[in-house]
Amino acid sequence: MVPQSEDRAWPHRHASRGLPTLALAGMATLLVAPAASAQPFGEWSPPVSIDPGRQLVNTPGNDGCPIEAPDGLTLFFASTRTDDPQIAPDLNIWVAYRASEDVAWSEIERLPLPVNSGANEFCPTPLPGNRLLFVSTRANECAGVTTNSADIYFTRQHPVRGRLTPQSLCNVNSTREEFSPALVEADGVTMLYFSSNRLDPLLHKIYVSVLDEDGTWGMPSLVDELNQPGAYDARPNVRKDGLEIVFDSNRSGSADIFTSTRSSVTEPWSAPRPVDAVNSGVTESRPSISRDGTRLYFGSARANGLGNVGTDIFVSMRSGPGKEQP
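^ Tol-Pal system beta propeller repeat protein TolB, sequence as received from the core. Prediction below:
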C-alpha cells in the first residue's frame, strides 16, 4: 500500500502536470485520509457565470461538465470549441487556471492525447495525486465486445513514460452509456458513482460500484433512493467526505439540479430535493461540488447576457467550516 494524501493538489499550469502515479489496481489505497464527519454549510447563493462576457471559458458553443481539481486553482470542463481549424467541434476536455480562489480564470488549454482523441471526451473528474477519470466515446473492447458507447476511463502519469494510455473500467462500463464518474473513499470503502442508460436507452439512472479487496470494481448497482421511476437521473458528483451528492434530473419537468445527504457512507441517501437557488427552469446539468464544499459548478442553458445560445458554466457559493460566504 502506498499512502497518499487526500489533499494533494493538482499541479498548476507551469508545474509538471500529470495524471496519477499509482496503478489502477491500487485505487483502493489512493485516498487514505480519515473520513470526515458532517460539517455545517450555509445556503447556496444565486449563481453567476464564471465568464459572463464569454472571453475565455464560456463560448457561444456548449461549455459544461465543470469540476475543480483538488487544488481549487484548476477547472476541468468539456467544450465544443476548437483552437484548431483541423479539429472538428466535438466535445473535448479543457482546463482553465487561476492564481487564487478570489480571482477570475485567466488561462485555458485543451488537454492533448491520450486524453482527448478524435471521439467525444467529457465528464472529467480530476483526483488527488494527478489522476483523472473521464468519459469518452472512443472505441474500446471489454469482454471481447468492441463498442463506441460513452464509457468511463482512467489515466495516470508515469514518472518516466509520461501520461499512460487511458484504460476503460470494463467491470463498470456496459455496451450503453456511462456518464460522470465520482470517486469516494471513506471509512475504508472506495465507491464509484456514475449514471448509465444500460436498462433503458432513454433514461439514465444513478449507479454505484464498490472496489473489491483485489482491486477490481464490483458489479454496479442502482442507488434506488436517488432514482425516480420514469425520470432521467444523471451525472452525479459526491462531496469529498461522501456525505452529500448532487446530480441533474428531469423529474420536475425541466433538467434541474438535485441534492441529497446522508449521515455516513453506510447509510442510505435522503430523499433528493431540488437546489432551488440555482435552478432556472431551463437545462442545468452536471453539477459538481468543490473539495471544500463551498462552490457548486454546473452547466446551464440560461441566458448569460449575450443571448440564450449554447450552454455556459455557472457557479454558486455558500459558507462552510472556517469559510464565510463571499
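DSSP finds no helices and 24 strands in the chain.
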